[in-house]
Amino acid sequence: MTLFLPFIMFMSHASKYMADKYSHLVIRAWNMKGLSNSSVYAGKLLHDSDICVFSEHHLYPCELYKLNNLHAEYECFGRSCSILDDSMANVRPGYGGIAIMWRSELSHAITRCNDMGNDRIIVVKLESNNSIIFIIGVYLPQQQCYISNFDEYVGKLDSVICQCKSVGDVIVTGDFNCNFGREFGIRCSGVTTRNARYLNHIVTGHNLSIIDLGESCTGPYCTFYVEGVGQSYIDHCIDHVSQTVRL
120, 174, 209, 223: least buried by Cβ within 10 Å? Predict the structure, then answer.
């Protein structure tokens, strides 16, 4: 079985956010499917990025420190699945989890938003030259998830976006577990899921767009592929249309 896992590269126009060295920022989002099997590739992504959003690191709260070992020049803000109990860390594998990592050189401009989000939504604030941008990493429940309700988490995401937009701009990226069908653009295929329609309703309500669906984007027309099973387009980047995303 061959599994191609996704990442999203977001290039933001720069002088607005960072000084000369950061004429642009590269932000990647990737579903790790477990840190233990993905640490080498995650390290490579960090090497070529400025900020990374990692979903499904599968770490218990007592294991979150392991994210700091991925790259010596990065800092991290991570959360574990809310129902993981540290007493079981050496008994059964973990699951879920979300994290944002950034280059240490950016730490003077980045603040962890501990009071926002939950175990599937994580937020940092990037502030520079009187401009503020919130980077929101997500790992939303899949359609048949038995431990989390999609509508509940999208409702929370809606609330977080409202809170962030009252202060600055937002970028939302990660694993949305939402497949958008052909009616959303030539990059899409298959059937638009009910969850995708609901997410799109929330996004457009904030005058934002799922910008990786646009024709200006390049790269694969799917973000999840399993040989013999099929493919889907479930990882996305949400922002204003003026920004540029490359898959």
Answer: 209
